[in-house]
């Protein structure tokens, strides 16, 4: 098991719900969590916007980042920020008019794969220059069928409702895949006929992540399940409900996962916030009031023993929403 992890996310803005979509978070924060002591250290607090955000009430949160060599790549709604580690020196900022509600950045094959969720698009960019190589609609539709290349979407708070809500890009056997929240699946970016139906026909739940480990792909679903799929057959092999398995109540919105070499799975749980899209909380049934407002937390799940071995509550002053759990660069 790791000694420390990094956690990315955001802190809710007081009154943000009433301001409307794309205005809920006031601060993008990066934490270091000591798994031996439970101590939390705030490493980065980004609480001011700039020219790459809406002029009023910018939505400030670190979404799902990644580690490459001794660098951290962190995404916000409208920027990709490259930090050296452990100095946390800001090396470069990449931003583009097609960036809206970015949910993740992954470093694959010397390129950045960015989910611009607000435009239902995956953006491919060069890490060193920020040059945009390609924009790919996650439904294989014409790129600008709903949007316009003339608009700077960084200045738009929200483009909801989304058609597919792409969340996370991963690579398997030469193909690039993306998870799609609306369709509850993962598809090959360049051939959507290659598809993993993550939630199944009898379950409607939001899916995130996409971690390749031991020739399988591991996904999170927001109700606290780990979904394991075979990317060769496109079939889900197992769905592990870690809350039910460990006799726990629902802990929050599950998103953000890291798997270490020994099979320990590190999972983030965001605090459940108010939403106008009530269907997103249907999985809570009549337990909404019990879970609403619970603090965020991070758990360590031992996939060999099939049990949660550590649980850490994250105070509101640090984070309400968790997007990713990452190893420290020097430990990766």
Could you say which overall geometry the principal axes of the C-alpha atoms support?
globular
Helix-strand category: mainly beta
Q: Are there runs of 5+ residues with pLDDT below 50, and where?
A: none
Q: Note the total helix count.
A: 3
Strand order within the widest beta sheet: 3-2-1-24
Radius of gyration: 18 Å
Share of β-strand residues: over 45%
Could you tell me the mean pLDDT? Answer: 93
Helix and strand run: EHEEEEEEEEEEEEEEEEEEHEEHEEE
For the biggest sheet, the summary is: 4 strands, antiparallel
End-to-end Cα distance:
12 Å
Describe this structure in words.
By secondary structure, the protein is mostly beta strands. It has helices at 16-19, 242-245, 288-291, and strands spanning 4-12, 25-34, 40-46, 66-68, 71-75, 80-84, 90-94, 102-108, 111-116, 121-125, 132-137, 166-172, 175-180, 185-188, 191-197, 207-213, 216-221, 225-230, 235-241, 253-259, 264-270, 296-302, 307-314, 321-326. The strands form six sheets. A four-stranded antiparallel beta sheet has the order 3-2-1-24, with no helix packed on it.
Compact description:
By secondary structure, the protein is mainly β. It has 3 helices and 24 strands.
Summary keywords:
332 residues, mainly beta, four-stranded antiparallel β-sheet, 3 helices, 46% strand
Topology overview:
Blueprint: E1 4-12, H1 16-19, E2 25-34, E3 40-46, E4 66-68, E5 71-75, E6 80-84, E7 90-94, E8 102-108, E9 111-116, E10 121-125, E11 132-137, E12 166-172, E13 175-180, E14 185-188, E15 191-197, E16 207-213, E17 216-221, E18 225-230, E19 235-241, H2 242-245, E20 253-259, E21 264-270, H3 288-291, E22 296-302, E23 307-314, E24 321-326
Antiparallel strand pairs: 1-2, 1-24, 2-3, 4-5, 5-6, 6-7, 8-9, 9-10, 10-11, 12-13, 13-14, 14-15, 16-17, 17-18, 18-19, 20-21, 21-22, 22-23
């Amino acid at each position: 098991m790791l000694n420390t992890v990094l956690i990315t996310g955001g802190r809710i803005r007081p009154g943000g719900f009433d301001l409307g979509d794309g205005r809920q978070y006031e601060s993008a924060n990066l934490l270091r969590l000591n798994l031996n002591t439970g101590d939390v250290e705030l490493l980065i607090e980004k609480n001011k916007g700039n020219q790459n955000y809406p002029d009023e009430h910018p939505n400030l949160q670190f979404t799902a980042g990644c580690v490459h060599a001794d660098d951290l790549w962190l995404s916000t709604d409208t920027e990709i920020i490259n930090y050296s580690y452990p100095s946390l020196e800001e090396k470069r900022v990449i931003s583009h008019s097609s960036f809206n509600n970015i949910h993740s950045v992954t470093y694959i094959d010397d390129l950045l794969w960015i989910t611009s969720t607000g435009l239902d698009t995956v953006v491919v960019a060069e890490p060193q220059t920020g040059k945009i190589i390609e924009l790919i609609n996650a439904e294989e539709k014409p790129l600008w069928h709903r949007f316009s290349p003339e608009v700077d979407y960084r200045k738009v708070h929200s483009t909801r409702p989304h058609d597919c809500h792409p969340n996370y890009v991963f690579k398997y056997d030469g193909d690039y895949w993306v998870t799609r929240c609306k369709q509850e699946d993962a598809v090959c970016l360049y051939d959507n006929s290659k598809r993993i139906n993550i939630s199944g026909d009898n379950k409607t739940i939001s899916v995130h992540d996409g971690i390749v480990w031991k020739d399988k792909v591991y996904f999170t679903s927001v109700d606290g399940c780990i979904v394991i799929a075979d990317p060769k057959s496109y079939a889900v092999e197992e769905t592990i409900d870690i809350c039910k398995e460990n006799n726990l109540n629902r802990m929050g919105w599950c998103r953000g996962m890291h798997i270490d070499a020994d099979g320990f799975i590190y999972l983030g749980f965001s605090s459940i916030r108010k939403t106008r899209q009530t269907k997103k909380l249907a999985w809570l049934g009549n337990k909404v009031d019990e879970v609403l407002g619970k603090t965020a937390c991070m758990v360590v799940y031992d996939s060999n023993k099939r049990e949660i071995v550590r649980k850490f509550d994250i105070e509101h002053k640090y984070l309400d929403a968790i997007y990713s759990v990452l190893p420290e660069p020097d430990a990766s």
